[in-house]
Amino acid sequence: MRKEEPKLEDGEEPLIDTTAALPLRSKRTERRQKKRHQKETASKQHATLWDLPSEILHEIIRLLKPSAIFRLSRANQALRTFILEEEERIARQVIETRYAVLAQCFIVPRLLNTVDEEARTALLDGKRQGAHNVHQSSAHKKPYQHIAVPDAAVVCTCLTCLLAWNNLCLVVDFAHWQRNLDAGEPIPMIPRGKFPEWNNVLGEVNRGVVEKAIYGPLYYAAILEAHLKSTVGSIKRHGENKGNRRRRFRMDVGDVRAETDGFLERSGPPSLDFPFHRDNYYMLEAYLPNRAWNKEVEEWRYMPASQHERDVEFAKAWARRRKEEAGKEVS
């Protein structure tokens, strides 16, 4: 006979059985589950950037800025090795994509060991270096305060390479003082005849950066990146000055976002004078030497790449003439 359910009084709710089954706990089972989980985790393949084919990896890296490539090289040893092995190729493509204009304005000085023996002897001649010193201010015949003198035993000292060295040192120094220029803070001026320690240290740091650029293409690309940033910042800074109505390069928001130097191919003011003093930085906008505007074709014309060889031959010819003159005096 079916048992009748108890009658509920008014306001009472029926009882519901919420008792849950107690889970069985076994240390042996837990160990097996843990081992199974570890095995499944180890068997899974996690795709990383390094797992990509080298050509695809190269195409990704070449789209980065030099500063980003340096940061990427610190991710792991495998990426660092790949970047170092492909440094020349990566740097060349980055420069072609981002800094094609700047690379023609700022060439890399050659190493002395890249010229022949006759040229090395002529370039190391003390009298020639004294007669062709481009590291001095023409007004005071003293070394530039913001440009370090290259090691003549390492760097070629033909006129082209000396000017190239000066320009790269200037770019690095100009980038160093961008914060002061943006904030409107004065750059420390050095009295004539004084050689403060902070300036000597800064000069050696700048020298080290330029020397790295001579040996490492990515360091050279990083200098071009820094100068593009300085140029963009300077044009924006001077453009915001309503009282400054000087002619400047046309630059829009798209040019800034592109982070390339393509807008510098447009018509703009030429860089005729070398900033011989940091005081020139205040009015410096786009320093782009070694080129001139051709009105007939309306484009920039750059210094030919063969100029280095011409200057080396000139140094050799100078040494031969000097040797002949010395022989005549002896006879």
From TrEMBL:
SUPFAM superfamilies per record: F-box domain
InterPro entries cross-referenced by the UniProt entry: F-box-like_dom_sf, F-box_dom
Top-level division of the source organism's lineage: Eukaryota
Extent of Basic residues compositional bias: 25-38
UniProt domain F-box: residue ranges: 46-94
Region described as Disordered: 1-45
Protein name: F-box domain-containing protein
